[in-house]
Write a structure and sequence with these properties.
The chain has two domains: 55 residues, no CATH class; 63 residues, no CATH class. The chain has six helices and no strands.
Length: 136
């Protein structure tokens, strides 16, 4: 980000992120898609005047992995327990914490986009940190 933007400011409030763009005090803001939708719900004019430039791929917020020697019975019991956890208040809190709709079993391949995004970040970070070291 340092290579593309003059400065980065982290704000706590949604309005502190969106309104400066709306009033042209800043050129761009990065925020969660869900947050932008919330801002548009609160002020429909934002949706008419502001447009998303890019949307990152879906990120898997939590992954549960098993050791290769884990028993099939142990896996089955844990997966069944997790799938039933949303019926409990603590399970609903976990889903809300990760801003997800549900916890479901998926194949490993569903992580491909998330892993590629991490790899791109690592490549960019390595490249830009090398550039910074070369500067006088």
């Amino acid at each position: 980000m340092d290579a593309f933007f003059s400065q980065q400011i982290i704000r706590d409030s949604l309005t502190q992120v969106v309104l400066p763009v709306f009033f042209q005090r800043v050129e761009v803001a990065a925020l969660a898609h869900r947050s932008f939708e919330t801002a548009v719900e609160m002020n429909p004019q934002l949706g008419r005047d502001l447009h998303m430039l890019a949307i990152s791929p879906t990120v898997i917020p939590i992954a549960l992995c098993f050791h290769k020697n884990c028993s099939q019975e142990g896996k089955r019991i844990l997966i069944r327990s997790i799938s039933k956890s949303e019926a409990l208040p603590a399970g609903r809190q976990i889903v809300a914490l990760y801003q997800s709709q549900t916890m479901v079993e998926r194949p490993t391949s569903c992580m491909n986009l998330s892993l590629e995004m991490v790899r791109q970040y690592e490549r960019i970070s390595t490249h830009t940190s090398g550039q910074r070291k070369e500067r006088p």
